Amino acid sequence: xxxxxxxxxxxxxxxxxxxxxxxxxxxxxxxxxxxxxxxxxxxxxxxxxxxxxxxxxxxxxxxxxxxxxxxxxxxxxxxxxxxxxxxxxxxxxxxxxxxxxxxxxxxxxxxxxxxxxxxxxxxxxxxxxxxxxxxxxxxxxxxxxxxxxxxxxxxxxxxxxxxxxxxxxxxxxxxxxxxxxxxxxxxxxxxxx
Length: 193
Ligand code: 5GP
Description:
By secondary structure, the protein is an alpha/beta fold. It contains 5 helices and 10 strands; from the N terminus they run H-E-E-H-E-H-E-E-E-E-H-E-H-E-E.
C-alpha cells in the first residue's frame, strides 16, 4: 500500500451509499504533511509536462491543490459554485451534479484567470461518477486552454468516472483507487498500481 492507501485504511470510514468519509485528514480536518506527499507524487507522475496553472473546485479541492501547487510553483484557480442568479458576464460556466449532495450547481471561473495560453493540471479530492471533472474540463475547453493532466486523491474505481475520463484520453493519476468497499465489514480493496 502507498502512503495514501495506508491512511485511508487507517482513518477512512465507510458509509451507506458508497460514501467514503475521510474528513479527519482530507476534506474537513486537513493533514498538510499528507498533502505535501501527494503534491510530491503528482509532480513525479506529471514530470515533463508543461503545466503553468492548477484548476480545482471548491471546497475540498482547494487545500490539496494549494499544497500541490507549491511543488509545481504555479497559481491555483478554483471553480466557484454559484447560483445562476448571481452570474455576471466574463465567466466560464459549467453544470456539475454533486455526488454527495445530489444537487446541481453551476460552477464558474472568471475568464481573466484562464486563457488559451494556459496548460492546466486539474486536481480534486474524489473521483466518483466524474461529473465534477467533466465540468472542470468543459471550463478549460471554453477558455481554449489545454488539459495537461488530472490528479485525483481518491478514485472510487467501482464507479464510472475513471473509465470515462481515461477513455477521453486524459492522463489521469489517482493516488489511491478503491475498487471495493464493504460497509458491513469495513473492508477496503485497493487497485494495484
Ligand atoms: P463525481 O462528480 O466524480 O461523481 O464526484 C466527485 C465529487 O463528489 C468530489 O469532488 C467529492 O467532493 C464528492 N465525492 C464523491 N464521492 C465521495 C465519497 O465517497 N466521499 C466523499 N467524502 N466525497 C465524495
